Amino acid sequence: MLLRQPYVNLLIVLAIIAALYYGLPYLYRYLSPKQRRITNAILVLLAIGGLSYAAWRSLQSVDPKRFEPTLINFLMLSFLLFVVGVAGVLSRRNIIIIFMSIELILNAVNLNMIAFSRYLAMNQAALEKAHLVVEPLTGPVFTIFIIVVAAAEAAVGLGIVIAMYRNRETVAIDEIDLLKW
Amino acid sequence: MQLHGWEGVLFYVLAIMTLFMSVFVVTARVAVHSALFLIATLVNVALLFILLRAEFVAGVQILVYVGGVMVLFLFVIMLVETRAEEEARVQLYTKQTWPAVTVALLLAVAFYFAMNPAQGAFRPPAEAAAAAAVATTDTVERSSAGAGLYISQDTEQVGDALYRKAALPFEIASVLLLVAMVGAVLLARGTKQEKYYE
Amino acid sequence: MLKLVWLIPVLPLLGFLINFLLGRRLHLSERAVSLIGCGVILLSLVLTVAAFYEYATSYAPAHDHQPFVTSGGFPQSFEFLPGGLARTTLGQQAGHLADFKVEWSYQIDQLSLVMMFIITFVGLCIHIFAVGYMHGDRGFYRFFAYLNLFMFMMLVLVMASNFVVMFVGWEGVGLCSYLLIGYYFDRKEAGDAAKKAFVVNRIGDFGFSLAIFGIFAAFGTLNFTELRTAVTHYPVEQLWAWGLMSWLALGLFVGATGKSAQIPLYIWLPDAMAGPTPVSALIHAATMVTAGVFMVTRTNFIFQHSVTMMMVVALVGCLTAFVAATIGITQTDIKKVLAYSTVSQLGFMFLGAGVGAFIAAIFHVFTHAFFKALLFLGSGSVIHAMHHEQEMPRMGGLRKYLPTTYWTMMFGWLAICGIVPFAGFFSKDEILWNAFDTQLFSGAKILWFVALLTAGLTAFYMTRLMWLTFYGEERFRRRHAGGEADEAFAAAHDKGLQPHDALAASAGDRPHHQPGEHVGAHDATDRLDAQGIPHLHFEPQESPRVMTWPLIVLAVGSVVVGLVGIPHFSAFEQWLEPVIARPEAQHAVAEHGSFTIEAALMLLALAVAVVGMYLGREFYGKRPELARQWAARLKPLYRLSFNKWYWDWLLDVKGVAAGKAVNNALWRVDAVVVDGGVNGTGRLTRISARLSGWWDKWIVDGLVNATGWITRAGSVVFRTVQTGLWQNYALLFVLGLFLVFIWYVYPSIPAAIKGMMGK
Question: How many angstroms separate the CA of residue B187 from the nearest CA in chain A?
Answer without folding.
Answer: 5
